Amino acid sequence: MLRNYVKIALRNLLKNKSFNAINILGLTLGISCCLFILLWVLDEERVDKFHANEKTLYSLYQTITANGKVSGNYSTPVRYKDGPVFLVGNMKAAIPDIKYQAFYATGYELPWGHPETFQTGEKKFKLEGSRASSDFFRMFSYPILVGNAATALNDISSLAISRKMADLFFGSPQKAIGKSLRYENKLDFVVTAVFENLPAQNSLKFDFLINWEAQQKKLEWASNDFRTYVQLADNADVTTVETKINRFLQPQLDKNDRSIRIGLQRYGDQYLHGHFVNGKPEDGRIEYVRLFSGVAIFLLLIACVNFMNLATARSVKRAKEIGVRKVVGSSRLDLIGQFLGESLLLSFVAIVLSLLLMQLLLPAFNQFTGKQIESPVTQASFWGYATGLMVFTGLLSGSYPALFLSSLKPVRILKGVIQFTRSAVWFQQGLTVFQFVLSITLLVATLVISRQTSYVRNAHLGYDRENLLYIRIEGALMSKNNYLFFKDQLSKMPGIAMVDRSSEAPHSMGFVIDGEEGRKEDAISWEGKEKGQSVAFHPTSVGLDFVKLMNLKLAEGRDFSRANATDSTDAFLVNEEAVKQMGLKNPIGKWVSAWQKKGHIIGILKDYHTNSFHEPIKPLIVDVKEYEYFGVILVRTVAGQTREALASLESVYKELNPNYPFSYQFLDQEYEQLYRSEQVLAKLSNVFAALAIVISCLGLLGLIMFSIEQRTKEIGIRKVLGSSERQIVTLLSGNFFRLILIAFFIASPLAWFAMNRWLQGFAYRITVSWWIFALAGVSVVAITLLTISYQAIRAALMNPVTSLRSE
To answer: Is residue 434, in this structure, part of any structural domain at all?
Structure first.
């Protein structure tokens, strides 16, 4: 019986080549998209899940309630007392449920939020790294090639490096152990361990780790920008441990109107759920996983709907076969098995083609998305997913045709009376509407995502980021005289328009200090401040030419000036948002105190963006420090003379700072990186929307071909009776346009709701205008017209003698 089913299925596959080709192509495109999205989703979900102790690893986060507002972050709670004192301290000793505890520096707000210089002999390289405490390698499963995980970071002179770094400096991991590396031309660290290069599915990025205590004791830099990780005992209850941690923390907090609560989040969940909502980590990249998973389901459903429609439409051709089978004894269950088997065969062919496409296009997909996904064909789990996808697609796409065809009455079939019931017609048309609802929704989403991505990439930030680059103040440039000499020499060189400095790069002003937070001596206050009022500022120190170099605009007041000697000691600039949140009226001349410095507001800067458009503009306070031993040197190059400017910059830099490799960053390129995820999303949505339209139009093509085939004699009669070609084309295509119009009115509110929700993730965003829906609708109608017009016009031009010859 099974052999007979397979034989009949193969015969039908070869007999109806055009319709089966359309079905296979549609299923192949749908399944291929599903496979690629599956690989992307699995790669995202596997990030940080490779650690052996993953089930007991947790990140600490703090929920902060202040001034009636609730916020949250991963920073370790800190109190300043001759440097930062971590309030969670040594919880491991106080709470038995905590097996290990480790601090790790994120690097976003510290001087090492950029590559750092290591040197041995004549070899010197800039590499990215961080700081971690002694339990780090006990908790996290980064393979140690040489050395001991338990003691790798025990000493403040310890340095753990990657295989890549060991190969760069010493030729091999084995040769690196016990060797000394000069750090930033200031300190020597001893290599105590070499770990394997970090896997791609890892959220932490570092080529070296220094003992975290060395940051304060040897490098003399204090900050609270450390995250705390804990490994719990196997039988520990997370809620109970949270309670114990908060009980441990509370006595150490200052008694004021602010409260801090500590929570625990599974470390492996942090990558996808790293965005805080109401003080707790909930959203984040998981939104993209959900979005792409939904797109995969949409595309697969569109392909399956095609199959259902075409198979149901073709039922007339197989009616007599069904009637004969029933007469000779085939049960309805036998017929359902036959038709499901045929759909599974088509699904099998489609998934084989999809796997070949996946292998062929995977390198391009990796480049497209910035991933490093390896071919999964050697993974048993992937074959399980692929088999499940094939079976699901085959059963779903073949279910309705099988049930419909098996329900036909043999007496009526063999008499030649075959007529679709009204419910069957409505169901078939409903499927067509459904697939176009999905297609139009995807098309609207693509237009919105593309416009928002274009908006954030091209919007004016409030400063001119073109022809602007920066280099780090390090080495010899940390000397005041050397910096001033560097600035003076560079200003005379070809291609250089202007040079100045800032305490941080303009696109990443990360420090946020509340009016009563931070170090006590750094607290920010102002004239007219109300008791308990707190404003989170972005503070920055700049040179006298900063405003001119950045092309910032003043709302009122004046810029810093060399003509006013007191500007360096008692003058501040603030932005419009700061004035608003401080509640100042007539702010010019009001006093402000910050960093043990009291002065007056001399100017109000128009708001400009220092972070991505996901975040609102923060209050900014700026003072003048013509020299500072840290920060960046900003260089404005002459338009069209970038090559000359870089040559000038490198020659002066190497002469003055020979112990450090020359490196620079362009502001516009780094700004692009802020929206890497959105750019990938825009590219993928373009591809998926195009494929959705293509798959839907393949179904339309099949339906119009079948409709013409069934109505050939009707068309001939109409032409004999005087119908024009235009009337024939309208007759054949009118019903399809009516279904698309219905789909448009259903899809529009769905797409509007989904896109408005997605846009909520941006503090600055476009408006979802009516013309986006109009453009999507016109585009679908135009593509539909192109799809069916050729076949419809061909049928309309057919000689009626030919179509009526058999009569």
So the answer is: no
Distance of CA 499 to the CA centre of its chain: 35
State CA 405 to chain mean position distance. 46
Taking CA atoms, 137 is separated from 52, 67, 76, 102, in Å, by 12, 40, 19, 9
Say which residue the tokens 């950029």 belong to. 114
Give dist(CA 541, CA 620) in Å, integer.
11
Tokens of 515: 């009016």
CA distance linking residue 249 with residue 263, whole number of Å: 12
Bridge partner list, 182: 119, 188
Q: Express as a percent the part of the chain with pLDDT over 70.
A: 83
Looking at residue 647, what is its pLDDT? 92
CA distance 405 to 318: 8
Residue 319 lies in a domain: yes
User: Do 208 and 101 lie in a common domain?
Assistant: yes
The backbone region for 18, taken as left when phi is positive above 0, alpha when psi lies in -120 to 50, beta otherwise, is: alpha
CA distance 365 to 379: 19
> Residue 201: inside a domain, yes or no?
yes
CA–CA separation, 518 vs 224, rounded Å? 9
Task: Give the range of the structural domain holding residue 484, as residue numbers without chain letter.
Answer: 468-667
**Tens of pLDDT, residues 388-428:** 888 988 888 878 777 766 676 665 555 555 555 666 667 77
* pTM, entire model: 0.81
- 685 & 805 share domain: yes
The DSSP line for 590-608 is: -EEEETTEEEEEEEEEPP-
| Complete DSSP assignment for 618-648 | PPEEEEE-S--SSSEEEEEEPTT-HHHHHHH
Is residue 59 packed enough to be buried (19+ CB in 10 Å), middle (13-18) or exposed (0-12)? buried
Instruction: Please name which of 409, 422, 435 lies closest in space to residue 309, comparing C-alpha atoms.
Output: 435
Q: Do both 400 and 445 map to the same domain?
A: no
User: Is the pLDDT at 452 greater than 60, yes or no?
Assistant: yes
Tell whether 529 and 565 lie within a shared domain: yes
> CA 124: distance to chain centroid?
34
Q: Are residues 384 and 479 in the same domain?
A: no
* Shared domain check, 43 and 68: no
* Cβ 633 vs Cβ 473: under 8 Å: yes
- Greatest Cα pair distance in the chain: 107
Residue 427 inside a domain? The answer is no
Q: Which pLDDT band, with edges at 50, 70 and 90, does 191 fall under? A: very high
Between β-strands 632-637 and 496-502, what pairing exists: parallel, antiparallel or unpaired?
antiparallel
Q: Which two tokens stand for residue 212?
A: 């975290």
- Phi, psi angle pair for 72, to nearest 5°: -155, 155
The predicted structure's pLDDT at residue 200: 87
User: Which of 86-95, 99-108, 742-751 bottoms out in mean pLDDT, i.e. has the lowest?
Assistant: 99-108
Beta-carbon contacts of residue 762 (< 8 Å; ≥ 6 apart): 452, 456, 613, 614
187-195 and 158-162 strand pairing? parallel
What phi, psi does 664 have (nearest 5°)? -150, 165
Helix, coil or strand: residue 695: helix
Number of domains in the chain: 4
Are 185 and 81 found together in one domain?
Answer: yes
